[in-house]
Amino acid sequence: MHGPVLVNWLLAVLTAAAGGYCLSRLRRAPGIAGTGTHRRHSHESDAAEALMGLGMAAMAVSGDAVPAVVWAWVFGVPAAVFLLAALLGPDRRAHRLHHAIGGLAMTYAALAMAAAPAAGHHHAGAGGTPLLTGVLLLYFGGYSLWAGTRLLGTTTGRLAAATAGLPRACRLSMGIGMFAMLLTM
Fold first, then answer.
1. Quick one: which of 21, 13, 6, 15 has its CA closest to 176?
2. Cβ-count burial of 62 within 10 angstroms (0-12 exposed, 13-18 middle, 19+ buried)?
3. pLDDT of residue 29
C-alpha cells in the first residue's frame, strides 16, 4: 500500500484479526448441508470476510512483492461470483452485493496502487480514478457508520452483545479497513 508504514501495519493487524476471527467461525461451524438458508448465508459471509481480512492484511504488508495481477485474481474472482449470485440468485441478498463491492474495491485498489508511484514520493500523484475512489470512500464510510450503529444497538443486552457483537465488530473493522486503504491511494 502507498501510505505511512505505521498505518499499513495497523491496517494489517486490524484486518488480520477480523479475518482470523471469521476463519475461526468457519472452522467451528458445522457443515452447511441441511442447516437452513440463514446458516448458509452466515457461512458464506464468514468465508468472504475471512478472505477479505486476511487478503487485505497480506496486501498491506507485502507492498510490491506480490504482483497486482495476483491480487486482482485473488479478489476479482470471488467478487464476480458474489456479484452473479446477488444478481441471479433466487434470494438476491444484499450481503452478496456488499461482498462483491468489497472484492471489486480490493481489485481496483491493487491495480491502482501498482500503477501509482512509490510511497516514498510524498507529493506523487494518487493511484486510481478520483471519482471511483471517492464513490468507494463514500460507500465504505457510510457502511462503517451503519455497521457502527448496528454494533451499538447490540450492546444493550449482554447476551446480544456476546452473540452478535463480535461478528458485527469484525464487519465494522473491515469497513474501516477498506476506508483507510482507499484513503492511502
1. 15
2. middle
3. 59
